[in-house]
Amino acid sequence: MDEDQRSTYFNGGLRISSNSFLWSKDIAEITVSGEFNPESRREKYLQIPDRSEMRTLSNLDFRATVFNNKPLTISFFGGHNQSYFNRELLTNVRTRTNSYGGMISLNNRILPLSVSYRSSDWLQTETEENRSFRMKQEDLEGRVTKSFTDFDRNELLYAHNRYNYSYQGMDDVSNVTDRVSLSNNISFDRKQRYTISSYGSFHDQKGTNTFRKTDLIERVSLRFTENLRLLGDYSFYRMEDVQSLTRNRESMTLSHRLYESLTTSVFGEHSATGQTLYDEKNFKAGAEAGYTKKIGNGRLSLSYRYYHHWFEAEGVPAEVIVSDEEHQLSDTRITLLQRAYVKPGSVVVTDETRTVIYREGFDYTLVARGSFTEVQRVPGGLIAENQQVKVGYTYLLPGSYGYEANNNSWSGSIMMFRNLLELYYRGAAQRYPSMRDADFLVLNRFSQDVAGARLDFGFVTGGVEYDSYRSNIIPYNRMRYFINLNWSLKSKVIFSLNGNISDYRFIDDDIDQLYSNISGKVNITVTRNIRVNLEAGYLEQSGRNIDLTLITARAEAVATFRQLMVRLANDMYVRSYTDSRFRFFGTRLELIRKF
């Protein structure tokens, strides 16, 4: 299908903001602001990609504060907002938000206390796919902070949350959550050389997703001298879900610095996990060293880390539920679930709070990598680049087993010619010298070599990097090229250019994946009242389930005459994503008069 659209539309805007107070702002202050942007053809506007900014169609905001900076402070707020914006230049989104609430604060030295309440109703619609996402939420929070001496700080928090979540094509989710947390930080001297910090929380959720979670963390930091430091850590974690899990973990690190060049440390970590269907024991012990030395007009850096890992699991073959596995999703990084043999259809991806449940195929995809499962985010979906998510799934536990692993990692870099040139290398390897009943277990044996070079001329930085990852799970080769350029001419002309290319070759699957992007901007100040802005970008992803090509460009001239601003802009937007094609060319003329 080839569609040619040509349209002319008119819009305008009115924004009003008013601030009033009684006698003084510390007695009573009220702020009211509103904005309305009518359009003659709103539906036509939705077909035009808004590449760089959020467009607000209506907004109303009310805020009031009584007795600010007094022993008792009361504040209220309410707001309505409706806007259109473009998510990652791929998906046009319409958002409507209504919210209101308030806070009461008792400001004193004996017991500072604050209580806040917020209610919000959030509706988001993806205009191209006509998908809707709605969340109603109520939050009640009380917070008490107290310091008994100059060396301690304590905070007690209680939160009650009620939310209802609906995503088109999925069942509604409704949960009520109560959370209590207490944090403490104590120092035993003014220089804070000896400190203890504590954190404890209890999380109780009822509704569609019912669970209880308890977290306890104790940390000790002892700095005996300027060069000798001991860190200790203990944590307790319990999750009561469909299956229950309890974990105790202890760790300790002793580090030493010799002069300014050599740092060494030894460390150990032990954890014991008890789950409904199995028990696990982990112990890691190792050492690391880092050496930095200035040589002539450059610098030499070397590091090495080694640890030995003992692992034992006792259980019977069964289906085990994982609730809170944390991952960070990125288009240029491979993310594998920690466990093998994941049950098909059991994967659930949520945000960090487990409030928003993402949809497979729209927000993320799953790719089989041998016995493991890879999670990839979908560009333009609800999961942003480099976003932290939590993943729940069910996997098949093979039974009782154990192993020992050796892990080595090392790196070296040298900077020369006053940091003009940097050559670097990183390596890592993991082997399993001993295994028990692990015939059906997939263990990640790997070796990795990364080598690269970087040139830094001040105004321009560029380099190349080669990554060879040999693994029995997902071996690959990767080439990466990057450049960053920033240049200015007496503040009259400012130029910037950023580019990156990552070319993956997955050896076992015989698959290539290419990620490339380049963008540039030029800002020219012709006179004090006239400026010209040019920008362009190119993004390409090619490979299985990720095919995307996006070209954007904008040329803009802005002139100011007293209180009148004139803006003339030309836009180009060409997108090819999976099986859809979209091309747009437009010209905009804006006249803005501020009173």
Looking at this protein, list some descriptive labels:
595 residues; mainly beta; 27-stranded antiparallel β-sheet; 3-stranded antiparallel β-sheet; 1 helix; 1% helix; 71% strand; globular
Short recap of the structure:
By secondary structure, the protein is mainly beta. It is 1% helix and 71% strand.
What structural class do the secondary elements suggest?
Answer: mainly beta
Runs in which pLDDT lies below 50 for 5 or more consecutive residues are 41-48
Helicity level: under 10%
How would you characterize the largest beta sheet?
Answer: 27 strands, antiparallel
What is the 3D form? globular
> Please, how many helices?
1
Strand portion: over 45%
For the termini, the CA-CA separation is: 47 Å
The tally of beta strands, per DSSP, is 32
* Rounded Rg: 29 Å
pLDDT averaged over residues? 88
